[in-house]
Specification:
Layout lengths: L2 H24 L12 H13 L15 H5 L1 H10 L1 H27 L4 H12 L2 H6 L5 H16 E2 L2 E2 L3 H17 L4 H11 L3 H25 L1 H15 L7 H7 L8 H26 L5 H18 L13 H15 L3 H26 L8 H7 L6 E3 L2 H6 L16 H8 L9 H16 L3 E4 L11 H10 E5 L14 E5 L23
Parallel strand pairs: 3-4
Antiparallel strand pairs: 1-2, 4-6, 5-6
Length: 524
């Protein structure tokens, strides 16, 4: 086997392992067609609404830039024919493929540095816990990583930045399109711009490409609904990011540490890991007799920028950390690429890396073996007629049950209940002033009033401002018929479950008890 081909064998093996872990996760019960997440229902529901001619930001609230709508367009069109559940299943498969492609792109970015650097970077991302969490359904992080890594592969030729204008323009366009999906890629794009600042002409070409990549998906929606787009995608996000929070748990999560570690143990491990990484870079520089190249600075500064970005927002979820995965992989592989160890040392280090990555992969496989998603479609089919108007605070439920689309012309178009709250309160959510919350409550009363069924998840008080008047009105006009949650709701908040509108002669303005007529088990 020629040495020049070893890197590609390593890339292929790591990519196959990554796809195996991700497809196995998707094959778990309820993970392909069931309910496993809130965000995927929102993102896919937005695209289905657009495919039906309903415009986001104008006709309903959308909390992210519009790039995801273009990614989901094929699956949303298929959903119009085969049903939303099949469309979302296709989007999930495509997300697995996108995240597997990220492993291959990391290898291509580092292939000039030898098989050891490729193995470390590809192997780390293949088994990175947060990347696996993000790739189990359609979430934005795998697609952000795909666009940013494609842009980086175009920006860099070997260790240095390319001098070819076409590569700079297309690389910038990919970073720009990634920003149209979510604003996070602005941080690595800024790092790349900093590295290009020494050559203003190259910086201008890359910047023009980024502007074009951002403008193409955004401008049509900006022209139709400028206020809604700016409020949903920008203003509400920064307002939400302004509260204090604890940093250690999210840093431990990004590092891939188990949640069972105590705070003190996690802090010790994080500090020790940072020190070892710094020592490895210093040793590699001394052995290789050269300092970090542009690619190393992109990895180090990009990782630092992403970590700082994740320290800012109030909210943080494990799939967010997937965006840090490629930078962490590049940082960990950097010393091996700088030092270029001897063949014997490479073999020894490579064996240790292979053992560590295999152990991480087996650990992930063991965790995935216990995954089970929720699949409410069978029961919902018996309770909700096809084409009925259903309002829900979690669109994943109606998408999995193929009840997302309605044939009722006046059925509300609301998709994202939390995003709607964010947009209507300017990001303040339940901290908004009482008049603002009353206005949101009044909107929900109008939407409920136009629905034949209401499907609520437990904890709806975090997404719907249940004022006493809204609660009284709801309990007087709807009764619980099934899919009831066993969780005890907060005071003056309806229990999670499926409700149907009562006939007019049975409504009494909120003075009835909303008890189920039967449970799903009784209906079998």
């Amino acid at each position: 086997m020629r040495t020049g081909r070893i890197e590609y064998w390593v890339i292929g093996a790591c990519t196959a392992a990554a796809l195996g872990l991700r497809f196995y996760q998707l094959a778990r019960p309820g993970y392909l067609f069931g309910v496993t997440e809130y965000d995927d229902g929102v993102l896919f529901g937005n695209a289905v609404r657009l495919a039906g001619g309903v415009v986001p930001y104008r006709d309903f609230a959308m909390e992210q830039p519009p790039g995801s709508l273009l990614l989901l367009a094929p699956a949303a069109l298929i959903a119009k024919v085969a049903g939303p559940a099949a469309g979302l299943a296709l989007a999930r498969v495509l997300t697995v493929l996108a995240d597997g492609a990220c492993v291959a792109l990391l290898g291509l970015l580092l292939r000039h540095r030898g098989p050891l650097a490729v193995a470390i970077a590809c192997g780390c991302y293949a088994s990175y816990p947060d990347a696996l969490v993000a790739s189990h359904t359609f979430l934005l992080e795998p697609w952000l990583n795909l666009c940013c890594l494609c842009g980086a592969v175009l920006f860099f030729e070997g260790d240095g930045l390319t001098t070819r204008p076409r590569r700079l323009a297309w690389g910038g366009a990919l970073f720009g399109f990634a920003t149209a999906i979510k604003l996070w890629p602005l941080f690595p794009l800024a790092v790349a711009g900093l590295l290009l600042a020494r050559r203003p002409r190259r910086l201008l070409i890359a910047g023009a490409g980024a502007a074009a990549g951002l403008a193409v998906p955004v401008l049509p929606f900006l022209a139709v609904a400028p206020g809604g787009l700016f409020t949903g995608a920008v203003t509400s996000q920064f307002v939400r990011s302004s509260e204090a929070h604890t940093l250690l748990p999210r840093l431990a999560d990004i590092a891939g540490l188990p949640a069972t570690l105590t705070a003190r143990s996690a802090a010790v491990v994080l500090l020790a890991s940072a020190a070892l990484c710094a020592l490895a870079y210093l040793a590699a520089i001394a052995i290789g007799h050269r300092g970090p190249a542009d690619l190393d600075w992109y990895a180090l500064l990009g990782f630092a920028a992403v970590l700082i970005m994740f320290c800012l927002p109030q909210g943080y979820y494990p799939h967010y950390g997937a965006f840090a995965g490629p930078f962490a992989a590049l940082v960990l592989a950097g010393p091996a690429g700088l030092a270029r160890p001897s063949v014997r040392a490479t073999a020894a280090i490579g064996l240790a890396v292979a053992v560590a990555i295999t152990f991480a992969g087996l650990s992930q496989f063991r965790r995935e073996s216990g995954l089970i998603g929720d699949h409410p479609a069978a029961v919902a089919d018996r309770l909700i007629p096809a084409g009925a108007c259903v309002v829900t605070d979690d669109p994943s439920l109606t998408i999995a049950a193929d009840r997302f689309d309605s044939g009722v012309p006046d059925c509300p178009a609301v998709v994202d209940s939390f995003g709607t709250l964010m947009t209507m309160t300017g990001g303040h959510t339940m901290r908004a002033s009482p008049p603002v919350l009353r206005a949101v409550s009044a909107a929900w009363r109008d939407w409920f009033g136009r629905a034949a069924f209401v499907w609520l998840q437990p904890g709806s008080e975090g997404r719907i401002p249940w004022t006493p008047s809204l609660y009284r009105w709801f309990t007087g006009h709807f009764r619980l018929i099934g899919l009831a949650s066993t969780e005890r709701p907060a005071r003056d908040v309806p229990r999670g479950g499926l409700y149907t509108a009562m006939p007019y002669d049975q409504q009494n303005d909120g003075h009835v008890a909303h008890q189920p007529v039967s449970s799903p088990r009784d209906r079998r």
